[in-house]
Amino acid sequence: MTAASPRVVVTGVGFASALGVGRDAVRTGLEQGSTCLLDLEERLARVPPGAGAVLDLPRKEFRNYFDTRVLRLSTMTRQTTLGCIAAGDLLVDAGCPPNGTEYADKGAYLGSFIVPPDFAKQVKAVRILAHRPDGEDTGYVLDDARLDEAMKMASAFDFLRALPNMPSAHLSIQAGYQGPACTYLGSDSSGMQAMGMAVGAIQSGLATAMIAGGAFFPFQEVHLAWQESRGLWADAGPVAQRVRPYAADRTGTLPGEGAALFYFEEREAALARGATILAEVVGFGQRFVTPGGDDDLSVRVDTLRAALPDAAPDWIAPLGLGHPELDALEAQAYQRAFGDSLGQSGLVTLVPQIGYCGPAAGPLNLVAALLAAAGEASPKRTEVLADENCSALARAMGQAGKSGPGSVVLGSSFSLDGVHAALALRVGG
User: Fold this and answer.
1) Cis omega (within 30 of 0) on the bond before 49?
2) What tens digit of pLDDT does each residue of 126-160 get?
3) Which domains does the chain have, with CATH numbers?
4) Roughly what angle, to the nearest 10 degrees, separates helices 324-338 and 296-307?
5) Contact (Cβ atoms closer than 8 angstroms) between residue 254 and residue 38
6) Which of 162, 163, 211, 297 is the most buried (most CB within 10 A)?
Protein backbone atom coordinates (compact mmCIF):
# COMPACT_ATOMS: atom_id res chain seq x y z
CA MET A 1 0.00 0.00 0.00
CA THR A 2 1.10 3.54 -0.66
CA ALA A 3 0.16 6.57 1.39
CA ALA A 4 -2.12 7.69 -1.44
CA SER A 5 -4.00 4.40 -1.63
CA PRO A 6 -7.46 4.31 -0.09
CA ARG A 7 -7.66 2.33 3.12
CA VAL A 8 -9.46 -0.97 2.54
CA VAL A 9 -11.57 -2.55 5.27
CA VAL A 10 -13.56 -5.73 5.79
CA THR A 11 -17.22 -5.07 6.60
CA GLY A 12 -18.63 -8.57 6.25
CA VAL A 13 -17.79 -12.26 5.96
CA GLY A 14 -19.66 -15.15 4.38
CA PHE A 15 -19.06 -18.78 5.25
CA ALA A 16 -20.32 -22.16 4.04
CA SER A 17 -18.77 -25.52 4.85
CA ALA A 18 -19.61 -28.83 6.46
CA LEU A 19 -19.84 -26.89 9.74
CA GLY A 20 -22.83 -25.00 8.32
CA VAL A 21 -23.48 -21.50 7.00
CA GLY A 22 -22.63 -18.20 8.68
CA ARG A 23 -20.72 -16.85 11.67
CA ASP A 24 -22.61 -18.93 14.22
CA ALA A 25 -21.52 -22.11 12.45
CA VAL A 26 -17.89 -20.95 12.63
CA ARG A 27 -18.14 -20.05 16.32
CA THR A 28 -19.73 -23.35 17.26
CA GLY A 29 -17.28 -25.35 15.19
CA LEU A 30 -14.26 -23.57 16.65
CA GLU A 31 -15.39 -23.86 20.24
CA GLN A 32 -16.46 -27.50 20.03
CA GLY A 33 -13.56 -28.61 17.87
CA SER A 34 -15.75 -31.37 16.42
CA THR A 35 -14.96 -32.94 13.05
CA CYS A 36 -17.30 -33.20 10.08
CA LEU A 37 -15.13 -35.75 8.27
CA LEU A 38 -17.02 -38.95 7.43
CA ASP A 39 -16.80 -41.99 5.20
CA LEU A 40 -18.27 -41.22 1.79
CA GLU A 41 -20.98 -43.30 0.17
CA GLU A 42 -21.79 -44.86 -3.19
CA ARG A 43 -19.28 -44.41 -6.01
CA LEU A 44 -17.11 -41.90 -4.11
CA ALA A 45 -16.51 -44.53 -1.46
CA ARG A 46 -14.57 -46.48 -4.09
CA VAL A 47 -12.22 -43.60 -4.99
CA PRO A 48 -9.37 -42.77 -2.57
CA PRO A 49 -9.54 -41.42 0.04
CA GLY A 50 -13.16 -42.54 0.38
CA ALA A 51 -13.80 -39.93 3.09
CA GLY A 52 -14.38 -36.20 3.37
CA ALA A 53 -16.73 -33.46 4.59
CA VAL A 54 -19.79 -32.06 2.81
CA LEU A 55 -22.29 -29.29 3.54
CA ASP A 56 -25.65 -30.77 4.53
CA LEU A 57 -28.03 -28.12 3.18
CA PRO A 58 -31.23 -29.19 1.35
CA ARG A 59 -31.78 -27.64 -2.07
CA LYS A 60 -35.03 -26.08 -0.91
CA GLU A 61 -32.99 -23.94 1.52
CA PHE A 62 -30.78 -22.47 -1.21
CA ARG A 63 -33.43 -19.80 -1.75
CA ASN A 64 -32.59 -18.46 1.71
CA TYR A 65 -29.27 -17.28 0.24
CA PHE A 66 -29.98 -16.45 -3.42
CA ASP A 67 -32.93 -16.09 -5.78
CA THR A 68 -33.17 -19.48 -7.51
CA ARG A 69 -35.51 -17.96 -10.10
CA VAL A 70 -32.68 -15.70 -11.30
CA LEU A 71 -29.66 -17.91 -10.62
CA ARG A 72 -30.89 -21.16 -12.13
CA LEU A 73 -29.33 -24.25 -10.57
CA SER A 74 -29.12 -25.80 -14.05
CA THR A 75 -26.42 -23.23 -14.90
CA MET A 76 -24.39 -23.82 -11.73
CA THR A 77 -21.79 -26.35 -10.71
CA ARG A 78 -21.69 -27.31 -7.05
CA GLN A 79 -18.79 -24.93 -6.40
CA THR A 80 -20.71 -22.06 -8.02
CA THR A 81 -23.65 -22.93 -5.77
CA LEU A 82 -21.39 -22.95 -2.70
CA GLY A 83 -20.06 -19.52 -3.70
CA CYS A 84 -23.59 -18.12 -4.04
CA ILE A 85 -24.63 -19.55 -0.66
CA ALA A 86 -21.62 -17.90 0.98
CA ALA A 87 -22.29 -14.67 -0.96
CA GLY A 88 -25.88 -14.55 0.28
CA ASP A 89 -24.62 -14.92 3.84
CA LEU A 90 -21.93 -12.31 3.20
CA LEU A 91 -24.22 -9.63 1.79
CA VAL A 92 -26.55 -9.85 4.78
CA ASP A 93 -23.58 -9.83 7.16
CA ALA A 94 -22.19 -6.71 5.45
CA GLY A 95 -25.54 -4.95 5.69
CA CYS A 96 -26.12 -4.71 1.95
CA PRO A 97 -28.39 -7.54 0.77
CA PRO A 98 -29.47 -7.47 -2.89
CA ASN A 99 -32.39 -5.10 -3.49
CA GLY A 100 -32.55 -4.93 -7.28
CA THR A 101 -30.09 -2.05 -7.52
CA GLU A 102 -27.16 -2.36 -9.94
CA TYR A 103 -23.73 -1.06 -8.97
CA ALA A 104 -21.17 -0.07 -11.57
CA ASP A 105 -18.49 0.51 -8.92
CA LYS A 106 -18.59 -2.91 -7.23
CA GLY A 107 -17.29 -6.27 -8.40
CA ALA A 108 -16.61 -9.91 -7.56
CA TYR A 109 -13.44 -11.99 -7.65
CA LEU A 110 -13.62 -15.65 -6.76
CA GLY A 111 -10.89 -18.25 -6.52
CA SER A 112 -11.87 -21.72 -7.64
CA PHE A 113 -10.51 -24.64 -9.63
CA ILE A 114 -11.49 -26.35 -12.86
CA VAL A 115 -13.10 -29.61 -11.78
CA PRO A 116 -15.07 -31.32 -14.56
CA PRO A 117 -18.76 -31.60 -13.69
CA ASP A 118 -20.49 -34.95 -13.48
CA PHE A 119 -21.48 -35.89 -17.03
CA ALA A 120 -23.40 -38.99 -15.94
CA LYS A 121 -26.53 -37.86 -17.76
CA GLN A 122 -24.63 -37.36 -21.00
CA VAL A 123 -23.07 -40.81 -20.68
CA LYS A 124 -26.53 -42.32 -20.25
CA ALA A 125 -27.72 -40.45 -23.33
CA VAL A 126 -24.85 -41.82 -25.40
CA ARG A 127 -25.51 -45.33 -24.15
CA ILE A 128 -29.15 -45.01 -25.20
CA LEU A 129 -28.22 -43.84 -28.69
CA ALA A 130 -25.27 -46.16 -29.24
CA HIS A 131 -25.99 -49.73 -28.25
CA ARG A 132 -24.89 -53.24 -29.07
CA PRO A 133 -27.24 -55.04 -31.48
CA ASP A 134 -29.25 -57.88 -30.01
CA GLY A 135 -27.48 -61.19 -30.30
CA GLU A 136 -24.11 -59.62 -31.18
CA ASP A 137 -20.92 -59.94 -29.09
CA THR A 138 -19.13 -56.90 -30.54
CA GLY A 139 -19.82 -53.56 -32.16
CA TYR A 140 -22.23 -50.70 -31.55
CA VAL A 141 -24.88 -49.02 -33.67
CA LEU A 142 -26.50 -45.60 -33.51
CA ASP A 143 -30.27 -45.85 -33.25
CA ASP A 144 -31.94 -42.59 -34.29
CA ALA A 145 -35.25 -43.96 -33.15
CA ARG A 146 -33.97 -43.55 -29.61
CA LEU A 147 -33.06 -39.86 -30.07
CA ASP A 148 -36.09 -38.48 -28.21
CA GLU A 149 -35.40 -40.74 -25.26
CA ALA A 150 -31.70 -39.77 -25.22
CA MET A 151 -32.43 -36.04 -25.39
CA LYS A 152 -34.41 -36.28 -22.16
CA MET A 153 -31.13 -37.11 -20.43
CA ALA A 154 -29.09 -34.15 -21.76
CA SER A 155 -29.24 -30.38 -21.44
CA ALA A 156 -27.17 -27.60 -22.96
CA PHE A 157 -27.03 -26.06 -19.48
CA ASP A 158 -24.90 -28.99 -18.33
CA PHE A 159 -22.06 -27.68 -20.48
CA LEU A 160 -22.76 -24.00 -19.86
CA ARG A 161 -22.34 -24.42 -16.11
CA ALA A 162 -18.83 -25.80 -16.62
CA LEU A 163 -17.50 -22.56 -18.17
CA PRO A 164 -14.60 -21.20 -16.06
CA ASN A 165 -16.07 -17.71 -15.64
CA MET A 166 -19.44 -18.87 -14.31
CA PRO A 167 -18.68 -18.63 -10.54
CA SER A 168 -17.80 -14.92 -10.50
CA ALA A 169 -20.49 -14.18 -13.11
CA HIS A 170 -23.13 -15.68 -10.84
CA LEU A 171 -21.86 -13.69 -7.84
CA SER A 172 -22.03 -10.47 -9.86
CA ILE A 173 -25.59 -11.19 -10.99
CA GLN A 174 -26.59 -12.18 -7.47
CA ALA A 175 -25.32 -8.91 -5.96
CA GLY A 176 -26.16 -6.64 -8.89
CA TYR A 177 -22.50 -5.75 -9.45
CA GLN A 178 -21.32 -4.51 -12.85
CA GLY A 179 -17.70 -3.74 -11.94
CA PRO A 180 -14.64 -6.00 -12.20
CA ALA A 181 -15.40 -9.74 -12.31
CA CYS A 182 -12.91 -12.56 -12.50
CA THR A 183 -12.71 -16.22 -11.53
CA TYR A 184 -9.15 -17.11 -10.56
CA LEU A 185 -8.36 -20.70 -11.50
CA GLY A 186 -5.59 -23.24 -11.63
CA SER A 187 -4.10 -22.97 -8.15
CA ASP A 188 -4.97 -24.11 -4.65
CA SER A 189 -4.09 -20.55 -3.58
CA SER A 190 -6.48 -18.85 -5.98
CA GLY A 191 -8.93 -17.93 -3.19
CA MET A 192 -6.27 -15.91 -1.39
CA GLN A 193 -5.11 -14.50 -4.72
CA ALA A 194 -8.64 -13.33 -5.50
CA MET A 195 -8.78 -11.51 -2.18
CA GLY A 196 -5.47 -9.74 -2.74
CA MET A 197 -6.45 -8.76 -6.27
CA ALA A 198 -9.78 -7.43 -4.99
CA VAL A 199 -7.97 -5.22 -2.49
CA GLY A 200 -5.78 -4.00 -5.34
CA ALA A 201 -8.84 -3.21 -7.46
CA ILE A 202 -10.14 -0.92 -4.71
CA GLN A 203 -6.77 0.71 -4.13
CA SER A 204 -6.37 1.43 -7.85
CA GLY A 205 -9.81 2.97 -8.17
CA LEU A 206 -11.43 0.21 -10.25
CA ALA A 207 -14.06 -0.34 -7.57
CA THR A 208 -15.28 0.99 -4.23
CA ALA A 209 -16.24 -2.46 -2.92
CA MET A 210 -15.48 -6.06 -3.88
CA ILE A 211 -16.75 -9.50 -2.95
CA ALA A 212 -13.78 -11.87 -2.88
CA GLY A 213 -12.78 -15.28 -1.60
CA GLY A 214 -12.88 -18.90 -2.69
CA ALA A 215 -15.32 -21.73 -3.36
CA PHE A 216 -14.57 -25.35 -4.12
CA PHE A 217 -16.14 -28.78 -4.58
CA PRO A 218 -13.54 -31.56 -4.74
CA PHE A 219 -15.78 -34.62 -4.94
CA GLN A 220 -15.28 -35.61 -8.54
CA GLU A 221 -13.53 -38.88 -9.35
CA VAL A 222 -10.88 -37.48 -11.71
CA HIS A 223 -9.92 -34.72 -9.27
CA LEU A 224 -9.76 -37.07 -6.29
CA ALA A 225 -7.62 -39.52 -8.25
CA TRP A 226 -5.32 -36.71 -9.40
CA GLN A 227 -4.75 -35.50 -5.85
CA GLU A 228 -4.21 -39.10 -4.75
CA SER A 229 -1.45 -39.39 -7.37
CA ARG A 230 0.17 -36.33 -5.78
CA GLY A 231 0.21 -38.03 -2.39
CA LEU A 232 -2.20 -35.58 -0.76
CA TRP A 233 -4.70 -37.88 0.95
CA ALA A 234 -4.33 -39.38 4.41
CA ASP A 235 -4.84 -43.12 4.43
CA ALA A 236 -4.43 -44.30 8.02
CA GLY A 237 -6.50 -44.23 11.18
CA PRO A 238 -10.15 -43.44 11.99
CA VAL A 239 -11.59 -40.83 9.62
CA ALA A 240 -12.40 -38.35 12.42
CA GLN A 241 -8.77 -38.40 13.60
CA ARG A 242 -6.98 -38.83 10.30
CA VAL A 243 -5.95 -35.20 9.64
CA ARG A 244 -3.33 -34.17 12.22
CA PRO A 245 -1.49 -30.98 11.23
CA TYR A 246 2.11 -30.70 12.45
CA ALA A 247 1.90 -33.99 14.39
CA ALA A 248 4.77 -36.45 14.20
CA ASP A 249 2.49 -39.19 12.84
CA ARG A 250 0.63 -37.14 10.21
CA THR A 251 0.06 -38.82 6.83
CA GLY A 252 -1.97 -36.35 4.78
CA THR A 253 -5.31 -34.62 4.50
CA LEU A 254 -8.90 -35.33 3.39
CA PRO A 255 -11.14 -33.41 0.97
CA GLY A 256 -13.93 -31.07 1.96
CA GLU A 257 -16.24 -28.66 0.17
CA GLY A 258 -16.88 -25.08 1.14
CA ALA A 259 -16.77 -21.36 0.37
CA ALA A 260 -15.71 -18.22 2.22
CA LEU A 261 -16.06 -14.63 1.05
CA PHE A 262 -15.05 -11.22 2.36
CA TYR A 263 -16.68 -7.86 1.70
CA PHE A 264 -13.81 -5.45 1.01
CA GLU A 265 -14.66 -1.77 0.91
CA GLU A 266 -13.11 1.68 0.85
CA ARG A 267 -12.96 2.78 4.47
CA GLU A 268 -14.58 6.16 3.80
CA ALA A 269 -17.42 4.53 1.85
CA ALA A 270 -17.96 2.06 4.68
CA LEU A 271 -18.12 4.83 7.28
CA ALA A 272 -20.45 6.86 5.09
CA ARG A 273 -23.02 4.07 4.97
CA GLY A 274 -22.65 3.32 8.67
CA ALA A 275 -21.12 -0.12 8.21
CA THR A 276 -19.48 -2.03 11.04
CA ILE A 277 -15.78 -2.40 10.29
CA LEU A 278 -14.46 -5.81 11.26
CA ALA A 279 -10.86 -5.27 10.21
CA GLU A 280 -8.55 -3.26 7.99
CA VAL A 281 -6.29 -4.78 5.37
CA VAL A 282 -2.67 -4.11 6.26
CA GLY A 283 -0.85 -6.14 3.63
CA PHE A 284 -0.90 -8.73 0.86
CA GLY A 285 1.86 -10.93 -0.50
CA GLN A 286 1.98 -13.14 -3.58
CA ARG A 287 4.89 -15.16 -4.92
CA PHE A 288 5.44 -17.90 -7.48
CA VAL A 289 7.95 -20.73 -7.38
CA THR A 290 10.12 -20.91 -10.50
CA PRO A 291 9.45 -24.24 -12.28
CA GLY A 292 12.31 -26.59 -11.58
CA GLY A 293 13.73 -24.32 -8.88
CA ASP A 294 14.63 -25.25 -5.33
CA ASP A 295 13.42 -22.09 -3.58
CA ASP A 296 10.20 -23.46 -2.08
CA LEU A 297 11.06 -22.28 1.41
CA SER A 298 12.43 -18.82 0.58
CA VAL A 299 9.44 -18.03 -1.64
CA ARG A 300 7.09 -18.93 1.20
CA VAL A 301 9.03 -16.70 3.59
CA ASP A 302 8.95 -13.82 1.10
CA THR A 303 5.18 -14.22 0.74
CA LEU A 304 4.61 -13.95 4.49
CA ARG A 305 6.92 -10.98 4.95
CA ALA A 306 5.40 -9.16 1.98
CA ALA A 307 2.01 -9.38 3.67
CA LEU A 308 3.30 -8.39 7.13
CA PRO A 309 6.76 -6.81 6.90
CA ASP A 310 6.87 -4.75 10.08
CA ALA A 311 4.83 -6.59 12.69
CA ALA A 312 4.25 -9.96 14.28
CA PRO A 313 0.88 -11.72 13.96
CA ASP A 314 -1.31 -12.27 17.00
CA TRP A 315 -3.22 -14.98 15.16
CA ILE A 316 -2.14 -17.04 12.17
CA ALA A 317 -4.28 -19.02 9.76
CA PRO A 318 -1.95 -21.37 7.88
CA LEU A 319 -3.34 -24.30 5.90
CA GLY A 320 -2.43 -27.07 8.34
CA LEU A 321 -2.90 -29.85 5.83
CA GLY A 322 -1.37 -32.64 7.84
CA HIS A 323 0.85 -33.58 4.89
CA PRO A 324 4.40 -34.51 6.02
CA GLU A 325 6.47 -32.46 3.57
CA LEU A 326 4.06 -29.54 3.10
CA ASP A 327 3.51 -29.04 6.84
CA ALA A 328 7.26 -28.95 7.39
CA LEU A 329 7.77 -26.33 4.68
CA GLU A 330 4.93 -24.23 6.05
CA ALA A 331 6.24 -24.39 9.62
CA GLN A 332 9.79 -23.54 8.58
CA ALA A 333 8.54 -20.57 6.56
CA TYR A 334 6.62 -19.13 9.50
CA GLN A 335 9.53 -19.72 11.84
CA ARG A 336 12.01 -18.02 9.52
CA ALA A 337 9.66 -15.12 8.80
CA PHE A 338 8.67 -14.33 12.40
CA GLY A 339 11.10 -16.15 14.68
CA ASP A 340 10.48 -16.05 18.42
CA SER A 341 7.46 -13.76 18.02
CA LEU A 342 5.46 -16.83 17.00
CA GLY A 343 5.59 -17.78 20.66
CA GLN A 344 2.79 -15.26 21.26
CA SER A 345 0.62 -16.29 18.30
CA GLY A 346 -2.51 -18.40 18.31
CA LEU A 347 -3.22 -20.66 15.35
CA VAL A 348 -6.50 -21.49 13.63
CA THR A 349 -6.95 -24.09 10.90
CA LEU A 350 -10.28 -25.72 10.08
CA VAL A 351 -8.82 -28.44 7.86
CA PRO A 352 -8.95 -31.19 10.55
CA GLN A 353 -12.66 -30.40 10.97
CA ILE A 354 -13.93 -29.68 7.45
CA GLY A 355 -11.25 -31.16 5.21
CA TYR A 356 -9.06 -29.45 2.66
CA CYS A 357 -11.25 -27.18 0.52
CA GLY A 358 -8.60 -26.29 -2.09
CA PRO A 359 -8.89 -22.62 -3.15
CA ALA A 360 -11.47 -22.01 -0.42
CA ALA A 361 -9.26 -23.34 2.39
CA GLY A 362 -7.24 -20.13 2.90
CA PRO A 363 -10.32 -17.86 3.03
CA LEU A 364 -12.21 -20.32 5.29
CA ASN A 365 -9.31 -20.40 7.76
CA LEU A 366 -8.96 -16.62 7.64
CA VAL A 367 -12.65 -16.09 8.48
CA ALA A 368 -12.23 -18.34 11.53
CA ALA A 369 -9.01 -16.65 12.64
CA LEU A 370 -10.54 -13.19 12.23
CA LEU A 371 -13.48 -14.12 14.47
CA ALA A 372 -11.03 -15.48 17.05
CA ALA A 373 -8.95 -12.31 16.90
CA ALA A 374 -12.05 -10.15 17.23
CA GLY A 375 -13.00 -12.04 20.39
CA GLU A 376 -16.15 -13.49 18.81
CA ALA A 377 -15.00 -17.09 19.17
CA SER A 378 -12.72 -19.04 21.47
CA PRO A 379 -11.15 -21.86 19.47
CA LYS A 380 -10.71 -25.13 21.27
CA ARG A 381 -6.99 -25.53 21.75
CA THR A 382 -5.31 -28.64 20.36
CA GLU A 383 -2.21 -30.29 21.75
CA VAL A 384 -0.24 -32.60 19.45
CA LEU A 385 2.91 -34.63 19.68
CA ALA A 386 4.74 -32.48 17.20
CA ASP A 387 7.26 -33.25 14.53
CA GLU A 388 10.43 -31.39 15.53
CA ASN A 389 10.33 -29.51 12.20
CA CYS A 390 6.84 -28.20 13.01
CA SER A 391 7.21 -27.39 16.70
CA ALA A 392 6.53 -23.64 16.38
CA LEU A 393 3.17 -24.09 14.65
CA ALA A 394 2.22 -27.07 16.80
CA ARG A 395 2.83 -24.92 19.88
CA ALA A 396 0.64 -22.15 18.44
CA MET A 397 -2.22 -24.65 18.07
CA GLY A 398 -2.24 -25.02 21.84
CA GLN A 399 -2.42 -21.35 22.77
CA ALA A 400 -4.57 -18.29 22.16
CA GLY A 401 -3.30 -15.06 20.65
CA LYS A 402 -4.21 -11.54 21.68
CA SER A 403 -7.80 -10.64 20.81
CA GLY A 404 -9.64 -7.36 20.40
CA PRO A 405 -9.07 -4.12 18.47
CA GLY A 406 -5.59 -3.84 17.04
CA SER A 407 -4.97 -7.60 16.94
CA VAL A 408 -3.23 -8.69 13.74
CA VAL A 409 -4.30 -11.76 11.77
CA LEU A 410 -2.24 -13.35 9.02
CA GLY A 411 -3.73 -15.94 6.67
CA SER A 412 -1.78 -17.82 4.05
CA SER A 413 -2.14 -20.45 1.37
CA PHE A 414 0.88 -22.33 0.08
CA SER A 415 -0.11 -24.18 -3.05
CA LEU A 416 1.12 -27.54 -4.31
CA ASP A 417 1.33 -25.76 -7.65
CA GLY A 418 3.94 -23.24 -6.49
CA VAL A 419 1.57 -20.28 -6.12
CA HIS A 420 1.68 -18.71 -2.66
CA ALA A 421 -0.44 -15.90 -1.20
CA ALA A 422 -0.92 -14.28 2.20
CA LEU A 423 -3.20 -11.54 3.52
CA ALA A 424 -2.89 -9.60 6.79
CA LEU A 425 -5.75 -7.90 8.67
CA ARG A 426 -5.89 -5.68 11.75
CA VAL A 427 -9.03 -6.02 13.86
CA GLY A 428 -11.11 -2.83 14.02
CA GLY A 429 -11.17 0.14 11.73
Assistant:
1) yes
2) 778 887 777 788 877 887 877 788 777 767 677 77
3) 8-116+161-427 (3.40.47.10), 120-159 (no CATH)
4) 50
5) no
6) 211
